[in-house]
Amino acid sequence: MLVEVKDRLDDPSIREIVGVSVYPDPDKLEKTIEAYKSDSGLELYGYEAEGECIGIIGLRMNEGGEMKIEHLAVSPDYRGLGYGRGLVLEAIDKKSPTVLVAETDEDAVDFYRNIGFEIESLGELYPGVERFKCVYVVQANE
Fold first, then answer.
1. Is 138 exposed, middle or buried (0-12, 13-18, 19+ CB in 10 A)?
2. Looking at domain 2-97, which CATH architecture does it have?
3. Among 10, 137, 2, 142, CA closest to 65
4. What is the model's pTM?
5. Each residue's pLDDT tens digit in the chain (142 positions)?
6. 3, 47, 78, 96 - which has most CB atoms within 10 Å?
7. Rounded to the nearest 10 degrees, how much is the dihedral formed by the CA atoms of 13, 17, 22, 27?
8. Residue 77: DSSP 8-state
9. Do the bridges between strand 42-49 and strand 52-61 make them parallel or antiparallel, or are there none, so unpaired?
10. Domain residues of the chain, as ranges?
């Protein structure tokens, strides 16, 4: 079940999972945490199992019903068990977007491809790092 966790950004367990989504870069983690605290348009939800937050999805709703996935991460102990897909599906249910958009790297592009996103290479936006735009059009019955 998705729960709002934006008010729990100082909780070490939430910070740890947000950190997974920005890799082990303390400066980037602090900037990300500050962005969620200061930007009312950014939403952050956690997925809880057995009283523990095991995954997060950060998103922004844009005009025309577009939902941009800003951050998506699942605790390493729970990967490969469908929680990432569950986070996306529950976000669709909660926000009712018409389209989902995410930008990711080569490490995560197969996750998006496997759950039905269309993938487009954006090329190397950073030296040596290929980025991908992932788009999913939500069907009316989803």
1. middle
2. 3-Layer(aba) Sandwich (3.40)
3. 137
4. 0.92
5. 899 999 999 999 999 999 989 877 889 999 999 999 999 999 999 999 888 899 999 999 999 999 999 999 999 999 999 999 999 999 999 999 999 999 999 989 999 999 999 999 999 888 888 999 999 999 877 6
6. 47
7. 0
8. G
9. antiparallel
10. 2-97
Residues facing 102 on adjacent strands: 69, 134
Would you state the structure tokens that stand for residue 141, as one six-digit string?
A: 């019955």
Strand partners, 24: none
How far is residue 87's CA from residue 96's CA, in Å, rounded to a whole number?
14
Q: For the chain, what's the residue count?
A: 142
